[in-house]
Design a protein that fits this description.
alpha+beta; Cytochrome p450; 6-stranded mixed β-sheet; 3-stranded antiparallel β-sheet; binds protoporphyrin IX containing FE; heme; Cyt_P450_E_grp-IV; Cytochrome P450 family 7 subfamily B member 1
Amino acid sequence: VLGNFNVYFNRKAGEPPLEQGWIPLIGKTYGFIQDPLKFLRARQEKYGDIFTVYIAGRYITFVMDPFLYINVIRYRKQIDFQQFADDIASKTFGYPAINEDKFPSLNERIHKSYKYLQGETLENLTETLRNNLQWIFKRELPEVRDWRNEEMYHFCCRLMFEANFLTLYGKNCAIGGHKQMTEIRSMFEKFDKMFPYLVARIPIQLLGSTRSIREKLINYFLPKNMAVWKESSEIVQARKQLLEQYEVLMEKDKAAHHFAFLWASVGNTLPATFWALYYLVMHPEALAAVHDEIDHVLRSTGQEIDPDYIIHLTREKLDGLIYLGSAINESFRLCSASMNIRVAQEDFTLKFEETKAISLRKGDWVAFYPQSLHLDPEVYENPEVYKFDRFVEDGKEKTAFYKNGKKLRDYLMPFGSGVSKCPGRFFAVNEIKQFLILLIKYYDMEILPGERQVGLDSSRAGLGILLPNSPVHFRYKLRT
Ligand code: HEM
């Protein structure tokens, strides 16, 4: 307790107002995790746009004004993302921290390999994903001529997990390949439920069978097991070759890196796909408008409905689906709650403007919570309402959003910011679009009567796209 008092009374000039509670190590943790957005908005009201809160043994300085985000992002040397991310990821996924002395340049080279998620390679990923989705739809949804009921989140996971996995890691053509995929997905779902606890640094030993589940998942990615998957993507091949060059990494460490990449590629994509589909099915006018747009592009490319789910849209055509893109963005806006965190590497003064600056101490965290921007009524009118065409203006993607009459540089941030921005963002939107196009074009879909409206499960607030807080059943059948 005395330690806390000392910090409190020794607050230096220029440091933001501090709220710390009286319980050592815990501080304001409880209030924050109960409802981060409400908690932060109440502090913003009290202290203004920049304040520090003592949460779970850390001093976290929150920057709430979106116009100030860019200033934090620019201090790349003094406020680092990598060390923080590596610390959490290595413990969560079970590989040794990427220490520069032990693994020289590994971090930098991993980041360079992300180029395989963009540009020309994204064209290949788009095509492979298209083929995989067709194959999975044919196998999993054959001849659904009568209404079939299913829980919607489960439906999205069972189709999208496999499509994503096959596209990135390749196909196991051996007998039992599909059974193995179902096993991996089921393990993954169990691990994913425990993900927030692992990120919160709860020791894995205290989380029941999570340790053995993680071990099993990692084992799938041991070189001898990966060798049976054929036609893996360029990004996975590049990561394999790169990890092979570090002899200090044990086989299971390399496998744990591959497993971490699997989580990155589906952990947010699955809930994001669910929300995009859920909102469209809940809003028939939105579904009809998006359907029209898809029909239009199919007609313009001379394509007719094909019984084998063959729809061929290039990346450029997919990017041009403005209404579908807007509907996806709108579901990101409503359901993403990631926290962008950086760590001060030294004591220094962070300057925002000529007259605005704060002092930070080495080890302090600096954070944004973009959900407060996404739900800000000054930026988005009636922010609680789903408006599928919110991101369309004059038939083009709308990119001009304002606060206090000033245009915002960052107005939608489901993929993080600056150096830590998600390298898979283009592929993610691309795959959600392809999945929705097939569903919308081939199926009638309805939420089952009597289903209650689904809300957000805030247990992973701060970590990305939130999950639904209850199951929701819908029905689908092939269009006649
Ligand atoms: C809707 C889907 C997705 C969302 C919302 C999302 C969101 C994010 C966010 C917020 C981060 C930054 C984390 C931070 O700042 O701490 C991130 C990082 C990352 N994402 Fe995504 N992501 C998605 C899909 C994907 C996909 C499909 C891939 C790969 C195929 C991917 C690969 C990665 C990787 C590798 C990182 C770590 C980057 C680094 O090492 O700095 N993500 N993602």
